[in-house]
Write a structure and sequence with these properties.
mainly alpha
Length: 265
């Protein structure tokens, strides 16, 4: 009987930011990851088992040699391999190419690269703001600017986190949309409603990432006025991405992420 603690499939619509998620206790993926980390920390290697001059080395070797190795041959294993399907492979490759060349996918990659450049180019201006905050604490009437520093760090963390998330989520959404169309035409065995739902969910995650990034950039534009022009360019890119998603994935806007945005759909 499945545990009532875990929400089925909640990790299917995830931005991977576990530190900011209120549902980690009810996410099976998160808990499995934590269990693996814990096991890794608890596993203390025994140096004796790596020392050939120690009896423990030979005991461990004997145990390993005593384990059944199986009697499979390469030919037998190949008998269980699925027959290659040239038509399926061709459809998959054609769809991957279509996604890579899609204007939205290319725009998302352009945004990711532009943010990476900004994070390097804006260093001097960001350090200048940091110096101003430090100086503000040294005046005759010191200002409490700790919250300002934390806010700047938070905004940078938001744009940094999401700039690498938007391209893969958007590509998955586009891929699902194209496969849903293929399914509707009888070219794929996947049920079109399943792929379309996945596409809309992935598109919704991309939209939320865009909205949060826009909010962070708007605040950074106020905090770092010297970077206003580059930030405006990034905001234009995000606005175009948002508009493009509304056109290419009309169901993404109204999709509600199960348990994360109200009632599951």
């Amino acid at each position: 009987m499945p545990s009532k603690r875990f929400i089925p499939g909640i990790f299917n619509y995830c931005d991977y930011w576990c530190e900011r998620c209120a549902f980690t206790r009810r996410c099976r993926n998160f808990q499995m990851g934590e269990d693996l980390k814990r096991a890794d920390r608890d596993e203390k290697p025994d140096p004796a088992k790596h020392d050939a001059a120690n009896a423990a080395f030979w005991t461990a070797l004997a145990e390993q040699l005593n384990r059944p190795q199986g009697d499979w041959t390469g030919a037998e294993a190949e008998d269980f391999a699925p027959e290659p399907d040239p038509d399926w492979n061709e459809r998959e490759e054609s769809r991957r190419q279509a996604v890579r060349q899609h204007p939205l996918a290319r725009m998302a990659m352009g945004y990711m690269q532009a943010v990476s450049r900004w994070l390097e180019d804006a260093q001097p201006d960001l350090k200048a703001v940091a110096d101003e905050l430090v100086q503000a604490t040294r005046g005759p009437v010191p200002n409490d600017v700790e919250d300002d520093a934390l806010e700047i760090g938070d905004m940078i963390e938001v744009v940094t986190w999401y700039h690498t998330l938007i391209p893969p989520k958007l590509s998955r959404a586009l891929d699902g949309r194209l496969e849903a169309l293929e399914s509707g035409n009888g070219e794929s065995e996947e049920r079109p409603e399943i792929r379309l739902s996945d596409a809309n969910g992935s598109g919704r995650v991309a939209l939320l990432a865009i909205e949060r990034s826009i909010a962070a950039w708007l605040r950074l534009r106020e905090i770092v006025p010297a970077q206003e022009d580059p930030i405006l360019n990034l905001l234009v890119l995000l606005d175009r991405l948002r508009a493009g998603i509304h056109l290419a994935l009309p169901g993404a806007q109204d999709f509600r992420l199960p348990f994360l945005e109200g009632e599951p759909r």
